C-alpha cells in the first residue's frame, strides 16, 4: 500500500507539474509551497480525480466549469498570498494574473460585470439606432454590423473574465481584435463613397473588405501557430491598428469640422477611448481583490459608446438629407 500511495503522489506531482509547464509562469505559481499545496489538495480532496468537480461545488461553479484542480489552485493561491504577506513580501501573480476573489462563479467579477455593462449599452444603442435611422440611410448597414461585432466581442469578454481557460481567452482576444479591424474598415467605407448607393457595393469597398479579412485571419493564424500565445505581439498589433484608426478618423474630423457640427461627438469618443486605453498600461494589485486596471478600463468604455452612436446616427442622417441621390429619386 505505501508503494501504491507513493506512486499516486508521484503521478499527481507530474500531472500538476505538466500543467504548470504550459502556463505563463509567475512568481506565485512557481513557488514550491504553492505547488506542494496543489498536489496535496488533489490527492486528499479530489482523490486524485483532478478533472472532477469538487464534492461540495455549487451550481454556478459547475456552470463556469470549476473542476477540482481549479478549486485546489484557487485555495492554494490564497494560502500562498498569505504566506508572502506574512513574510512581508509583495503580492505575487499567478500565471500572469493577480489574485481575484471569485464571486458567483466569476473568476474576475468586476471585469465580467463591466463587460456586461458594455454589452447592454451596445444592445440598447443599436436598437435605438435601428429604429431612429431610415432604412435607406447610407452607412446604416455598416454601423449595424459594427454593433453586432461589438456585441459579439463583449459577450466573449464576459465569458472570458468569468472563466479564464485557453479557449475563452482566445475567443476574447480575437473578438476584441475584430472590433479594431472593423472600425478601421468603417473609415474606408466612409471615405471611399459607400454611402453613394445603398444597393450596390463598389470595387473599392470589396478591396477594403478583403484586406481587412486578410489582416484579421493572418493575426489569428500567427497566434494559433505558435506554441504559446504571444501576448506582446497581440498587444502590439491591437495598439498599432487602433492608433492608426484613431489618426485616420481624427484627420477626417479635422477636414469636416466646419461643415458638420456633429463631428465633435466622434472627436470626444476617440479622445476618451485613447485616454481609457492608458489604463491598460497600469498594473497594480486589485483593489479589494476585485478592481484592477483592466476592469477599470472596461468600466471607462461604457459611456464612450453613447458619444460614438450619437455621431454615427447624425452622420447617417446627414448623408440621407444631403448626399444620397438615390434616396431623393425615390421620394
Number of helices: 13
Describe the oligomeric state of these chains in a short phrase.
single chain
CATH topology of the largest domain: Rhopdopsin 7-helix transmembrane proteins
Helix and strand element order: HHHHHHHHHHHHH
Number of strands: 0
Query: Into which percentage range does the β-strand content fall?
Result: under 5%
Tell me the overall shape: elongated
Rg for CA atoms: 24 Å
Mean pLDDT: 84
Q: In angstroms, what separates the terminal alpha carbons?
A: 89 Å
Count of spatially separate domains: 2
CATH A-level architecture of the largest domain: Up-down Bundle
User: In CATH, what is the class of the largest domain?
Assistant: Mainly Alpha
The parts where pLDDT drops under 50 for at least 5 residues are: 1-23, 324-331
Fold topology:
Layout lengths: L1 H20 L10 H13 L14 H5 L4 H19 L22 H24 L7 H23 L3 H26 L11 H23 L5 H26 L6 H15 L15 H9 L2 H19 L2 H6 L1
What are the salient characteristics of this protein?
disordered N terminus, 2 domains, disordered C terminus, elongated, 331 residues, single chain, 13 helices, mainly alpha
Give an account of the 3D structure.
The protein is mainly alpha-helical. The chain has two domains: 2-86, no CATH class; 109-330, Rhopdopsin 7-helix transmembrane proteins (Up-down Bundle). Helices cover 69% and strands 0% of the residues. The protein contains 13 helices and no strands. It has helices at 2-21, 32-44, 59-63, 68-86, 109-132, 140-162, 166-191, 203-225, 231-256, 263-277, 293-301, 304-322, 325-330. Helix 9 runs antiparallel to helix 10 (263-277). The protein is elongated. The termini are far apart. The model is unreliable at 1-23 and 324-331 (pLDDT under 50).
